[in-house]
Amino acid sequence: MSIPDRLDEIPPSGIRRLFELAGRHKGVISLGIGEPDFDTPSHIKEYAKEALDLGMSHYTPNNGLKILRDAISVKLLKDNRIQADPDKNIMVTAGGNQAFLLSLSTFLREGEEVLIPSPCFVTHSAAVRLVGGKAVEVGTYIGRGFRVAPEDLRKAMTRKTRCIIINSPNNPTGSVLRRKDLEEIAEIAAERNLRVISDEVYEKVIYDGEEHVSLASLNGMSERVVTINSFSKTYAMTGWRLGYAVADESTIAKMTKLQMYLDACPMSFGQYAVAKALGDPRSKVSIEAMRSEYESRRNYVYGRLRNMDGMEVSKPGGAFYIFPRVKGRGDVTLSEKLLLEAKVAAVPGSTFGKYGVNHLRLCYATAMKYLEEAMDRMEKFMGKIP
To answer: Residue 364 burial (CB < 10 Å; 0-12/13-18/19+)?
Structure first.
């Protein structure tokens, strides 16, 4: 199948569709787009200006600026217990999304299967299909906090299974995989000689003393795992489009080759700004301020939803999403009525795969006053539905 055929097969993002629909109506409170409502910290913007004053407006190496790869290497060892050579095991990408397509392109062949715990982020399955693979959804459920059960991964495997994609903290559910979960996934990958792509974009947005564990830090996993991360959520830099991938030398070399022909390199002055920010203590303060505010909002929204008619909800351990199950009601129709009648935008759970049906994804990365109004509107709306 050709790329045009695959593109025709893949539906547009339901998140973007909702965003555009919400923009046509006045007074809508959007809980749809997953984007921090904070501005990029001022010291990072100052570093970007400094880079421009230094004339850093030209191409960088295809795998990213050396100073940024060095800084990422230090960060990985300190925060994630991952040893990564900045010249062999790290590349900078144009956001996290690009890294999925780049990494899958290095090993996944036509018709091979990738297991994806579902509900899942829309890019994961789309990237698999774009490179010719088959995305196999493995269900996760509200009663288990949306953490994938290892036995369900085993049941879903066939002789064509080549890879598992995990995402913790998770978008759209907010679930966090525990160390034991990851150890069992590592055991499965080793037994079946599988690659694992670990999406860790929300690693710093975590609550209640939960521990973020990088799969690549577990014994024997560094050569199997592609760790993908981004600065979009951690530093509120969604528009800067900067992320990175960590993998074995061969995989990074192939990804870098593809990037060379795809977009040459990520933005130069942004790379410099992030490199400086990674070593600046002010960054840690900014991250904690955002995380703490998200936690307060999470607590509020969870408390309101769990007492709302027709809602069943699991308390998320990370990210800035909550994924309630709507009892006996279709998510697409409900989402549209919620938008038109209550002026609250929420993404239908089916956008995130077949196991998201009859759920809604609510993003609480918005100011508390808007969350309070949104919950009031939702409570009134849900109370009127038979």
So the answer is: buried
The reported pLDDT for the residue numbered 181 is: 96
Q: Which tokens is 345 given?
A: 């935008």
**Low-confidence residues of the chain: pLDDT under 50:** none
CB burial readout 95-110, b (16+ within 10 A) else e: bbbbbbbbbbbbbbee
Retrieve residue 87's tokens: 């010249």
Between CA 246 and CA 99 the distance in angstroms is 10
Helices (H), 263-280: 268-278
Query: What pLDDT is attached to residue 204?
Result: 97
For 336-361, the three-class secondary structure string (H helix, E strand, C coil) is HHHHHHHCEECEEHHHHCHHHCCEEE
Question: What pLDDT, on a 0 to 100 scale, did the predictor assign at position 386?
Answer: 62
How far, in Å, CA of 384 to CA of 338, rounded?
12
Structure token digits, residue 355: 């196991």
CA distances from 331 to 17, 141, 270, 354 (A): 15, 16, 39, 11
Q: What is the chain's percent helix, strand, coil content, to nearest 5? A: 45, 15, 40
State the pLDDT at residue 78.
97
What pLDDT, on the 0 to 100 scale, is given for residue 288? 97
Q: Do 313 and 305 touch, CB atoms closer than 8 A?
A: yes
Please name each of the domains of the chain with its CATH number. 3-40+283-384 (3.90.1150.10), 59-280 (3.40.640.10)
